[in-house]
RNA sequence: GGGGGAGUAUCCAAGCGGUCAACGGAUGGCGCCUGUAAAGCGUCCGGCUCAGCCUUCGCAGGUUCGAAUCCUGCCUCCCCCA
């Protein structure tokens, strides 16, 4: 029991989960995820990890893919209405979500349900569901109170969200529902809906929200401060190294389920964290390679093992074989030629590690052939004249 | 149904006839420092083979030598009253 509530923020109602566990029967443990973005990131895994713990303790995990609720928009933690993904996006996301969730969960022992299965209900049934609450109950949540105070809009659809999520609990007869702390209102609301439908109310357990790589805001795709579970090892490692020191303990606890190493200097600890994360979602060999890659780029300031090649020939002019660098860099790094000029001017462009003089705009093809062109610290292309 | 307000670059947000590629902030890029942390300093941040030119301020027209700024229509959004 102590294990199962580790790191949890709220376990409500007080004592209920303990009683449920003491009763001995496996619990039906629910988690709903709305497929609003294509990928699962470390923030999602905090709750998934907890779900896995219940799974390992022999409980029945029910993963709900919110293909229907994704079209409604969960107002939790939102200060504004979110843009709605298209049905096609939702469908595509739903597929990748499941795949990625099984990087944490045991596929064989997970019941996966799509909530469109029961939420595509008859209008009469929907009215029945709506009859279970009042507007006052729906807007009492903090998210809405803030928006009301600020004169910001609240979409009617958002108002309905908790009812639908609550109905999910009815549909799968959940004994326990997990979620982030921002889900507290919705989770508790589900209890009332279950009661209204003559079921026993679930208990709820909330997990902390993982802070993003910026160390300030919650990890989220739209804020661009996330680490995706399917990202390449090098990316994962690099992004983790950028996490501010203060956030490290949190990452150790919530992502790796451990404790921050006591006596390691900060940069060693962070390396351990980065290795741990890559190992968790890839493997030990990948972690090793990712760290070497990191060392080469940022400690030795060198080029990575494998550098993508770029054919130099199309950029050389017919006459003297001069290459216009802004155009070349624009193509090589998918930036504008103006940006390339800026990089050169500010000493951010290098050839084989040598800074290109800031007033250079053209170079002979022969001076470029076979060398590694670099923009900033992390973008590389090996130039190769062919044909 | 009535009244009021807003749409400016990645985001926030100034500008309200020329000096506007458009103040300021945030985010971000690059460089120095360094542990790709934090703090700090400098610099850049529409595009273009760039001392110049081109395209931008919801959309479409119009007025004017000249419009992000004025006029007309349209679209979208928000607030208040009912």
Describe this structure in words.
- The longest helix has 17 residues.
- Helix 12 packs across helix 13.
- The strands form three sheets. A six-stranded mixed beta sheet has the order 1-6-5-2-3-4, with helices on both faces.
- It has 16 helices and 13 strands.
- Helix content is 42%, strand content 14%.
- With 387 residues, it is of the alpha/beta class.
- The protein is elongated.
- The mean pLDDT is 91.
- The protein binds one RNA strand of 82 nucleotides through helix 10, helix 12, helix 13, helix 14 and helix 15.
The total of beta strands comes to: 13
Chain-averaged pLDDT: 91
**Biggest pleated sheet:** 6 strands, mixed
Broad shape: elongated
Beta content: 5-15%
Terminal Cα span: 69 Å
Question: H/E series, N to C?
Answer: EHEHEHEHHHHHEHEHHHHEEHHEEEHEE
Low-confidence stretches: none
Count of alpha and pi helical runs: 16
**Portion in helices:** 40-55%
**Secondary-structure class:** alpha/beta
Radius of gyration: 26 Å
Strand order of the largest sheet: 1-6-5-2-3-4
Task: Give the SSE map.
Blueprint (H helix, E strand, L loop, with lengths): L9 E3 L3 H7 L5 E6 L8 H15 L3 E6 L21 H15 L8 E5 L1 H4 L3 H8 L4 H5 L2 H9 L5 H17 L3 E5 L3 H13 L6 E5 L25 H9 L6 H7 L11 H16 L2 H16 L9 E3 L10 E3 H9 L3 H9 L3 E3 L2 E2 L6 E3 H4 L3 E4 L3 E6 L3
Parallel strand pairs: 2-3, 2-5, 3-4, 5-6, 7-13
Antiparallel strand pairs: 1-6, 8-11, 9-10, 9-12, 12-13
Helix pairs in contact: 8-9, 10-12, 10-13, 12-13, 14-15
This protein binds one RNA strand of 82 nucleotides through α10, α12, α13, α14 and α15.
């Amino acid at each position: 029991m102590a294990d199962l509530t580790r790191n949890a923020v709220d376990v409500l109602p007080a004592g209920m989960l303990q009683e449920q566990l003491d009763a001995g029967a496996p619990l039906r443990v629910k988690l709903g995820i709305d497929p609003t973005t294509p990928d699962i990131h470390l923030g999602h895994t905090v709750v998934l990890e907890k779900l896995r713990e219940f799974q390992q303790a022999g409980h029945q995990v029910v993963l709900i893919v919110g293909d229907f609720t994704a079209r409604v928009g969960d107002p939790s933690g939102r200060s504004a209405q979110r843009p709605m993904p298209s049905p096609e996006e939702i469908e595509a996301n739903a597929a990748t979500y499941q795949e990625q969730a099984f990087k944490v969960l045991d596929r064989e022992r997970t019941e996966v349900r799509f909530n469109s299965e029961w939420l595509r209900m008859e209008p009469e049934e929907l009215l029945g569901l709506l009859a279970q609450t009042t507007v006052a109950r729906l807007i009492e949540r903090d998210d809405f109170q803030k928006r009301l105070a600020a004169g910001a809009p609240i979409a009617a659809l958002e108002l309905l969200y908790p009812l639908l999520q609550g109905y999910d609990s009815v549909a799968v007869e959940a004994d326990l529902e997990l979620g982030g702390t921002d889900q507290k209102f919705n989770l508790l609301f589900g209890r009332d809906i279950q009661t209204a439908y003559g079921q026993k109310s679930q208990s709820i357990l909330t997990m902390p929200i993982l802070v993003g790589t910026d160390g300030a805001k919650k990890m989220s795709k739209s804020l661009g401060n996330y680490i995706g579970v399917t990202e390449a090892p090098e990316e994962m490692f690099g992004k983790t190294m950028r996490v501010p020191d203060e956030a490290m303990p949190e990452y150790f606890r919530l992502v790796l389920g451990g404790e921050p190493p006591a006596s390691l200097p900060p940069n060693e600890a962070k390396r351990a964290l980065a290795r741990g994360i890559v190992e968790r979602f890839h493997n030990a060999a990948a972690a090793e390679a990712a760290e070497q890659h990191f060392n080469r780029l940022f400690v030795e300031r060198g080029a990575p093992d494998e550098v993508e090649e770029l054919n130099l020939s199309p950029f050389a002019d017919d006459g003297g074989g001069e290459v216009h660098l802004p155009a070349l860099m624009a193509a090589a790094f998918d930036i504008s030629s103006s940006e390339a000029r800026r990089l050169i001017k500010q000493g951010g462009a290098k050839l084989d590690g040598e800074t290109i003089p800031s007033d250079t705009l053209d170079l002979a093809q022969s001076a470029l052939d076979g060398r590694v062109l670099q923009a900033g610290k992390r973008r590389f292309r090996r130039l190769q004249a062919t044909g």
